[in-house]
Structure formats: C-alpha cells, structure tokens
C-alpha cells in the first residue's frame, strides 16, 4: 500500500467526489430518521495543504484552489455550498489550509441521531484517523480491509444510509473488485445509497466496466464522468468518475445542470467536459 492521499487531497477528483458526497448527505437529512455513512476507504480525515506532500504535487491548486478563485454562477454556488461551508468552517482565517477528507466532511454534516463508520487499512492512516475522531461517540473508526466491510457492516442498523467506496486503484483488478463488492453489498442492503469512485486514465477499462455494471442490473445506477482534458494523455488522471446507486431523485438533473460549468473551471486542456447518464434506470 503505497498510496497516500495527502499528495492528492483537494484535487479536481476530490472536488467532484466531495461536492456530491455533501449533496447526498444533505438530501438524506430531509427525513428525521437516523442514517449511517460507511466510508470504506477513509484516508486520514484531515489534510494540511501546506504539508510537504501537498506542496510537492500542488494538485489542490487545480482543484479547491481553482474553485476558490473562480466566479461561480448562483446554480453552481448552491450545488457546492454544503461542501464549501464545511471547508470554510475549518478555515476561519480564510483561504484553505485545512482540507476535510471524506470522513471529516461527512461528520461535519451529520445530525445528533446519525452515525459514521470510517474504515482504513493502512495502520499509520488508521491511527491518524482515530486521533481525528477521538472521543466522538457518533463515529467509529476501524482498521480493516474496506472490501470486507461491504459484507460485515451491511445493512447498518439504521437501515438508511450511504456507502462510500473510494479505493486508491493501485492494485490490479480494482474495477472488478468494485463490481464484486457492489454485487455483494446491494444483496445485503439494496435500499442504501452507494457512491463509488474510479479514475479515468487513457488505459482505464471503462467500456468493460460499464458493461459489467449494467449486467448487475441494479435499478437506479447513475454514472458521472468529469474530464479535465481528452482521455489520451498518459500517465495520470484525465478525468474522474463516480457511480451512484439509488441517488437522491433530484441529483441526476442537478448534475446535468452544473457539471459543464464545473468542468470548464477545472479544465486542463481541450476535451474537458462532463457526462451524466442513468446506466440502469428505475424499475
Ligand atoms: C483515495 S484514498 C481515500 C480518500 C478519502 N476517501 C477522501 O475522500 O478523503 C484511499 C485510501 O484507501 C486506503 N486503502 C487502501 N486499500 C484499502 C483497503 N483494502 N481497505 C481500506 N482502506 C484501504 C489507503 O490507505 C487510502 O488512505
């Protein structure tokens, strides 16, 4: 396990993932009933963008950095608000020095009745994550293989919630592991909302992935892809993808409205744009 999210925190992929995560949680709060967020690949929770790692790649400058500098339309501003408010709360001095990873962001949005399970396999990262949530009775941090939690921790006792699957894609076969994990998880907890992240690189097996995803036949499977340039550059990310099962019913239309503008802000070359498609529709 070589991947360290500290090099990438706040980059363009985090912008899309975290903005959508915050939207989904905001939507779950429309009902009083408690829910749980299960974050299977949680990272360390809180990132210092002045760290050697973050400064070395400077990726955050082309992500959250660009968002902060851009003039946003009122529609995009409203869409990003739940995420940006959580970022701002950590940076009362202005700017962005402290960046919330997915568990910290989720936690910032929970109510008293809601819970967070944050899973991380890397022992050093799990230790840091435990420190971030020390004494927080609403959050459980577990050092574990996140793929196992898709069996062991589902369904949550609240019977409502969101499962975020955000692996590093450093191991071979991660796309297939994702399909298998999703098949297992949705058998145990079909009513849950799931958000899965995947990279878009020149050699990503996206056509095969879509085929396998469609073959699962789970109703309400939404695919979201944001490209920062055309998918020919190598190595490195040309785009970022999300698969969302059982999304809030307003999300597809909202993403179609705001993502073209977001793609323009994050563009790093010709071919930037966004694609939102319901891969398997409602039954
Ligand atoms: C992309 S990062 C997570 C970023 C985080 N979700 C966020 O948005 O802030 C992936 C994390 O998964 C961890 N990881 C790698 N393999 C894992 C596994 N099998 N189970 C759980 N965590 C794993 C890595 O150590 C890394 O911290």
Q: Helices, strands, pairings?
A:
Layout: H1 12-28, E1 36-39, E2 46-48, H2 52-57, H3 64-69, H4 74-90, E3 98-100, H5 102-109, E4 115-120, H6 123-132, E5 139-143, H7 146-152, E6 161-165, H8 174-188, E7 193-200, H9 206-216, E8 221-227, E9 239-245, H10 251-266, E10 273-280
Parallel strand pairs: 1-4, 1-6, 4-5, 6-7
Antiparallel strand pairs: 2-3, 7-9, 8-9, 8-10
Helix pairs in contact: 1-4, 1-5, 8-9
The structure holds S-adenosylmethionine (SAM).
Structure overview:
The protein is of the alpha/beta class. The protein has one domain: Vaccinia Virus protein VP39 (Rossmann fold), CATH 3.40.50. 40% of the residues lie in helices and 20% in strands. The strands form two sheets. An eight-stranded mixed β-sheet has the order 5-4-1-6-7-9-8-10, with helices on both faces. A two-stranded antiparallel sheet has the order 2-3. α1 packs across α4 and α8 packs parallel to α9. 44% of the residues are buried. The model has no long low-confidence stretch (mean pLDDT 96). S-adenosylmethionine binds next to β4 and α7.
Kindly summarize this structure in a few lines.
Specifically methylates the adenine in position 2030 of 23S rRNA. The chain is of the alpha/beta class.
Uncertain segments are none
Helix content estimate: 25-40%
CATH superfamily: Vaccinia Virus protein VP39
Largest β-sheet summary: 8 strands, mixed
Overall strand count? 10
Q: What is the CATH level 1 assignment?
A: Alpha Beta
DSSP summary: helix tally: 10
Instruction: State the end-to-end distance.
Output: 40 Å
Order of neighbouring strands in the sheet with most strands: 5-4-1-6-7-9-8-10
Tell me the fraction of residues in β-strands, as a range: 15-25%
Count of discrete domains? 1
Shape: globular
Please identify the structural class as seen in this structure: alpha/beta
Ligands and ions found? S-adenosylmethionine
CATH architecture: 3-Layer(aba) Sandwich
Radius of gyration: 17 Å
The CATH topology assignment is: Rossmann fold
Element-level helix/strand string: HEEHHHEHEHEHEHEHEEHE
Keywords: Methyltransferase, RNA-binding, rRNA processing, S-adenosyl-L-methionine, Transferase
Family: Belongs to the RlmJ family.
GO molecular function: 23S rRNA (adenine(2030)-N(6))-methyltransferase activity; RNA binding
Protein name: Ribosomal RNA large subunit methyltransferase J
